[in-house]
Write a structure and sequence with these properties.
The structure holds two protein chains of two kinds.
Chain A lengths: L10 E6 L8 H9 L7 H5 L8 E7 L6 E7 L8 H5 L5 E3 L5 E3 L9 H5 L6 E2 L26 E2 L5 H13 L12 H5 L5 E5 L6 H6 L4 E2 L11 E4 L5
Chain B lengths: L1 H8 L3 H13 L8 H8 L3 H27 L14 H12 L3 H10 L9 H22 L8 H4 L6 H21 L3 H8 L4 H10 L7 H34 L11 H27 L8 H32 L2 H11 L4 H19 L7 H28 L14 H22 L7 H22 L13
Classes of the chains: A alpha+beta, B mainly alpha.
């Protein structure tokens, strides 16, 4: 937090688990937005699927007091990311905006970051990416395609931030709330995913992150994630 | 400590005199150690058959790697969350084996263990050759081997992998010098006995060695310096190898004893590999007169010490985790003790502790055959130890929803077999270019060391009662 330049934003996300219906619109929107090829069922069964945004079932308690929770899980965008520390070539970095990025052209594919991430939220390109049918004709021109052998991860749709920033700069104003949204937040039909500047006290995410319902995953590890969740059962 | 105690026994008068008599009796035209030169200058058909078999397996491994290079790491069994598997296991294993040579040889030299003379060379060669396969395992594991130079261009010292790069390359350099220095006088012997291309090669490598007292003194000093220098380097190597795991916060990796645990394991597997290599050399080249049961006995004692040390570390590691009972750590703990990794774990315990302890603690079974069986067990067990460190932690991540079973594919097994075969092939090749037992050191032992040791032992004793100091012959 301390290294943040004055006047810049700290982008974060708050997922309201009470609102989430588990529809997976966020997962699909992410795949399409970020040019992630859909995995074959065999590849998915072998743990080879790439899903920057994933809907993960959490089982709580034991039978008969069993509860299943579905949790949308993007990269936690830690303020203190264990993945960056271990990269031998600086292929993963955290910018001024606090977003943990991956430099695909520099990554040597050693997969040290993927093993160091306590959330296991980094993905490796086991093969050259391939799209079924003519899906490969409809790629997003704003997002580069990752070659085989490199690591990739959720970027909070960083390309959208760049566009919003350029637009704001051209009009000589700061980025407005809601002007920059990742594809998952935009696609969510129940508006369970709030996104914005955690350092702007008036923003929705800053308000919700201070809610007594708010928690973060593996908070005790000190990784300081910028993805918050709002506990279920209030509504 | 044990080394010093043994060293006093080693050149007992009975044995020393027996050795020189035997050597003198069978010495043609004044050259006593013909048996050490013979394997370099002549090869039997069995050598070529064995070499061809190893080369075939090595080529098969190369083929498997080409398949992986063409299609990507998808041809392995790796997945999310088991991002590391056989290759990283092999990296730790091979670098561990490399501690056979340089470290053991340096310690024995510095401890003035006279029984080292016949075994140091074969140990040092293991080190230098096997390091290439340790480094190779990392390169094979890389998703983008074509970007290897990024490590120099964009290297970040915050990453433990960079510590490895620095440490292992220093180790390779130091070990190569440490192997080469004691080779010089032997190369000069070969230079004087060969003609043609070989002669020219040896003349180049002998660096003008003529065996003058001045040259000998310079060589001794350089060897002593290198022996001291390589020890901290070797210790640092396996320490930083362990740091690759220990620096992350993953369950059962994030452990403060990983450095010493890995170093002890490395020396353990290194001694085992050395015993296996010596047994092979001894039977294939008929060097029974040089590599004697006493050598296997002493190395067996060292292996026994490391067996106990290994058990101590392993016991501490697992007890501490169990007593603390943190759920994420216990998930990995149970996966090893009674879960999917239990077969590997308990085989490891049998191979690294039960089998070597039973064989080596008993003087009657600490024979050549006995130490070879124990060493085979330790080698297998130590590979499994690395396996049960690398894979279970990754297979049991903190958060649910990520689960996949990892088992290596034919590509990974083929590359493993190819690497092991290529190592054996290179080792065989070395014995055809250089003597695998140091000729000049054996001679020096025969000519000077017996007297030196007698004087040294005398200097340990109180001067009163025995022969007056200064008057000793």
């Amino acid at each position: 937090m301390s290294e943040r330049a004055k006047g810049s934003q700290r982008w974060g996300m708050v997922v309201d688990l009470d609102r989430c219906t588990g529809c997976q619109a966020c997962v699909t929107a992410c795949q399409v937005e970020n040019n992630i090829p859909p995995p074959s069922p065999e590849a998915a069964a072998r743990g080879r699927a790439i899903r920057w945004m994933d809907l993960v079932p959490y089982q709580e308690g034991e039978y008969p007091h069993l509860k299943l929770r579905l949790v949308p899980r993007p990269c936690m965008q830690c303020d203190n990311p264990p993945c960056i520390k271990v990269c031998p070539v600086g292929a993963t970095t955290k910018g001024e905006d606090g977003i943990v990025a991956q430099i695909y052209a520099r990554c040597i594919g050693c997969r040290y970051c993927t093993t160091a991430c306590p959330y296991t939220l980094r993905y490796f390109n086991w093969y050259e990416p391939r799209w079924p049918g003519d899906l490969g004709q409809a790629l997003n021109p704003d997002v580069s395609i990752r070659p085989k052998g490199v690591v990739e991860k959720c970027t909070f749709c960083h390309h959208r931030l760049q566009k919003a920033r350029d637009r704001a700069a051209a009009e000589g104003r700061p980025i407005l709330e809601g002007e920059y949204l990742p594809a998952c937040a935009e696609a969510c039909p129940t508006r369970a995913i709030a996104f914005g500047d955690l350092d702007d006290p008036g923003s929705e995410v800053a308000r919700e992150a201070r809610s007594p319902r708010a928690f973060r995953l593996l908070e005790d590890l000190g990784t300081e994630p910028k993805v918050y969740y709002l506990r279920e059962g209030e509504a | 400590m044990s080394v010093r105690a043994q060293e006093l026994e080693a050149p007992s008068p009975r044995e020393a005199s027996g050795r020189s008599e035997a050597a003198e009796a069978g010495a043609p035209d004044g050259f006593r150690d013909e048996a050490l030169i013979a394997p370099v200058l002549t090869s039997t058909w069995r050598f070529w058959v064995m070499g061809a078999v190893l080369a075939a397996v090595a080529l098969w491994g190369v083929n498997a790697y080409l398949v992986q290079f063409r299609w990507g790491l998808g041809v392995t069994g790796l997945n999310r969350p088991a991002y590391w598997g056989v290759y990283i296991t092999n990296f730790v294993f091979f670098i561990g084996i490399s501690h056979a040579g340089t470290l053991i040889s340096a310690i024995l030299r510095l401890a003035r263990a006279e029984w080292r003379r016949a075994i140091t060379r074969s140990a040092e060669v293991i080190t230098v050759l096997v390091i290439f396969f340790g480094i190779g395992s990392i390169l094979i594991d890389m998703g983008r081997p074509d970007r290897l130079l990024n490590i120099l261009k964009h290297g970040r010292f915050q990453s433990p992998l960079l510590w490895d790069v620095v440490s292992v390359s220093t180790y390779l350099t130091g070990s190569t010098i440490y192997l080469f220095l004691p080779l010089i006088p032997d190369i000069a012997i070969l230079r004087d006995r060969t003609t043609g291309v070989r002669h020219r090669l040896y003349r180049l490598l002998a660096l003008g060695w003529t065996g003058t007292p001045r040259q000998h003194r310079a060589l001794e000093i350089l060897i002593s310096i290198m022996a001291v220098v390589v020890i901290p380097i070797a210790v640092s190597v396996h320490t930083v190898v362990s740091f690759v795991f220990a620096m992350t916060i993953q369950p059962m990796w994030h452990s403060a004893i990983f450095g010493p645990y890995f170093v002890a394991g490395a020396i353990f597997s290194g001694i085992a590999a050395l015993i296996l290599a010596m047994a092979l050399i001894r039977s294939v080249y008929g060097l029974h007169d040089y590599l004697k049961p006493i050598h296997f006995n002493y190395l067996g004692v060292l292996l026994l010490v490391m067996t106990l040390l290994w058990f101590y570390f392993t016991f501490s590691e697992y007890l501490v985790t169990f007593y603390g009972s943190e759920p994420v750590h216990m998930a990995v703990w149970w996966a090893k003790i009674a879960g999917p990794f239990a077969p590997a774990f308990w085989t490891m315990v049998a191979c690294c502790f039960v089998i070597p302890l039973v064989i080596l603690a008993n003087r009657r079974t600490r024979t050549v055959a006995g130490t070879v069986v124990a060493s085979l067990a330790v080698t297998v067990g130590m590979w499994l130890e690395r396996w049960t460190i690398v894979v279970p932690s990754l297979s049991n991540p903190r958060l649910p929803g990520v689960a996949a079973h990892y088992f290596p594919t034919w590509v990974e097994w083929s590359i493993f077999a190819g690497a092991a075969s290529m190592f054996a092939l290179l080792y065989m090749g070395f014995t055809k270019v250089f003597p695998i037992v140091s000729i000049w050191e054996i001679r020096e032992g025969r000519d000077a060391a017996v007297r030196e040791v007698v004087e040294r032992v005398r200097s340990y004793l109180p001067s009163g009662g025995g022969p007056v100091e200064g008057r000793a012959p």
